[in-house]
Amino acid sequence: MSRFLLTEAAKSDLEGIHDFIFLDSPGAAARVRTALRDAMRRLARNPRLGHLRADLADEPLRFWQVYSYLIVYRAESDPLQVVRVLHASRDVRTLLQGD
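Above: the chain's sequence. Below: its structure in token form.
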């Protein structure tokens, strides 16, 4: 497995993250976006890298942190499916229940 797909929620998350950071620093926004995409490609090649968190999700989702953001994904899907990209300080469980 070497590819990944973003859900609509994950696409929206990435856009929001970029736009928020861009207001203060366009360069930082680009670096964060690149780091997140690079991590997603790495996870697609090695889907078991992330951690299972039964306390945050009712299904077997894995989590991988990049800076202050969590990439939430389904490791068993082919291609790997990125469900959300959330700031770690947010109420991740509640946000995932809404998906």
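The first helix runs from residue 8 to 24.
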